[in-house]
Amino acid sequence: MFDLTRLDVSAVALAGVLVAMVATSMVAGVVSSEQRRRRDAASLTAIDFVRSSFAGRLARGEPMAELLLRAVEALRDSFELETAEVWLNAGGVLRIAAADPPQDLERVALDPSEESIAANARVSGRPWIEVWIPALLQNHPDSAMRVAPISASGSLLGLILVARRHLGDRLPDEADATLAELARELGISINKQRLDAALRDSLDELRRQAADLQASRARIVAVADAERRRIERDLHDGAQQYLVAIAVKARLLQELAEADPAMSRTLLEGLASDVELAHEELRTLAHGIYPPLLSDSGLGLALSAAARRASIPVELHTSGLGRYPPEIEAAIYFCCLEALQNAAKYAGEGAAVTLRICQEARDLRFEVRDDGAGFDLCQRGTGAGVTNMTDRLGAVGGRLSIESEPGRGTRVLGTLPLPPPVDDATQVMIAP
Questions:
Q1: How many CB atoms are located within 10 Å of the residue 373 CB?
Q2: How far is CA 389 from each of CA 153, 336, 395, rounded to the nearest angstrom?
Q3: 410-417 and 399-404: which strand pairing?
Q4: β partners of residue 152
Q5: Residue closest to 125 by CA, chosen among 149, 105, 144
Q6: pTM greater than 0.70 (yes/no)
Q7: From residue 329, how far is each of 71, 306, 318, 365, 401 by CA, in Å?
Q8: pLDDT, tens digit, for every residue of 268-315?
């Protein structure tokens, strides 16, 4: 016969166990559900930060470094990571822009193939890193890792790297989706910032060039006015005096032609001499304005004559030179003269100059190099002669550079683009 008392007690105990199991299961389910909900909510923290705050704060001028640090902090908190890092790429070199906590390895060089592969890769794990960017493993020798490329238009802007301490600590499945979305958002923001920076640099360069052009034009106008005054003064003091004398003698000759033939002959001899002197004076003046030899024979012969007249030994090298538009030949000629004069003044005793001119493709280049004293560009800067050369070349689209060091001489380099050749076959003759 059964003992009902013991049965009741057993039944009650069993029921209690069952109730406890059910309760535990329900509590576990609630806890698991709550943990999952909180984890899912936390996994959105980093991406929400980037979506809602990153771009706006960047647009308001907050430093990129601070915003990236906030992003990695949010990412680390979201997935309970050992570390979260953002690397940025510049010229094929990855550098840590933000890391939580800070890392020892701060620079990783990539070759072009690695850079291209990384730019087009998906979110990847440790095996991919071991093959393509093994240097990233130095900070995490035994960690589970995921890396998400940050790219734009096929170019690698950087990487997001996350790690947990042990290889067995697998990151949750939603981590890849979050990392991919983070990489996209960061890529858009970083690329926009770089484009904005490039645009600002371009605008600053255009403003600088516009200011230089305006200053250059003002100097050219001032120099032209001064040159006109010099020519006027030289004409007044030189050739004009001979012409006045010729006019006076011509009137006297007219008055004395019949009355005093002997005096007329004397005046004629003086008149011929005055005409010759006036011609020489005008030719000298014209030579200073535009050398006849340059106009008649081109750069090679004109600079050869200038080298012979120079007060410093000059070794001249010209090869393959043709004839060029007058404004180009004049710019090169007078720049070379200015450089020779500067070398004669500042190179020092015993110095010599090598002058080279050549045409390379569609550029005409010249180099005036002396082996003299040289100078420190940072301390002494450049003078009016260099400004004149810069203005001359700039007026026809050329550029000038100066290289010098104390004790190692000075090198003046000029490059001037040539206009495209004229195709005679395409010219149309229009009858008058």
A1: 16
A2: 43, 9, 10
A3: antiparallel
A4: 155
A5: 144
A6: no
A7: 60, 14, 14, 11, 19
A8: 777 777 777 777 667 666 666 667 788 888 899 889 988 888 888 999
- At 242-261, the pLDDT tens digits run 676 677 777 777 777 677 77
Using DSSP's 3-state secondary structure scheme, residue 153 falls into coil
Residue 412 CB partners (closer than 8 Å, separation 6+): 335, 339, 342, 367, 368, 369, 389, 400, 401, 402
CB 146, CB 176: distance < 8 Å: yes
Please give the share of the chain, as a percent, with pLDDT higher than 90: 15
Question: Is 85 within 8 Å of 112 (Cβ atoms)?
Answer: no
- The pLDDT of residue 30 is above 80: no
Assigned token pair, 81: 């990571």
Helix, strand, or coil (residue 97): strand
pLDDT in tens, 365-388: 999 999 998 888 877 766 777 888
C-alpha 105/C-alpha 129 separation (Å) is 15
Q: What would you report as the CA-atom Rg of the chain, rounded to the nearest whole angstrom?
A: 42
Half-sphere exposure of 46 (CA within 13 A, CB side): 34
Please report the DSSP string for 277-293 in residue order. HHHHHHHHHHHHHS-HH
Between CA 192 and CA 56 the distance in angstroms is 12
Q: How many other CB atoms sit within 10 Å of the CB of residue 184?
A: 16
Phi, psi values for residue 93, rounded to 5°:
-125, 120
Burial (CB count <10 Å: 0-12, 13-18, 19+), residue 174:
middle
Residue in this structure with the two tokens 């979110």, named with its chain if needed: 123
What confidence tier does 354 reach under pLDDT thresholds 50, 70, 90? Answer: very high
Query: Is residue 41 over pLDDT 60?
Result: no
Query: Both tokens of residue 100?
Result: 């939580």
